[in-house]
Amino acid sequence: MSACIQPPAGWWKLREASGYWHSLIDGRWVLWHRWTWEQEHGPLPRGWCVHHECRVKWCGNLAHLEAMTIGDHNALHAREDGHHNDAKTSCPQGHAYAGDNVLTYKRKDGGTYRVCRECKNAIARRLYAFKLLKPPPQPPQQCPVCGSPDIKRNRPTPGENECRTCGYVHDNNGKVVTS
Question: In the chain, which ranges are continuous DSSP H helix?
Answer without folding.
Answer: 32-41, 70-80, 117-132
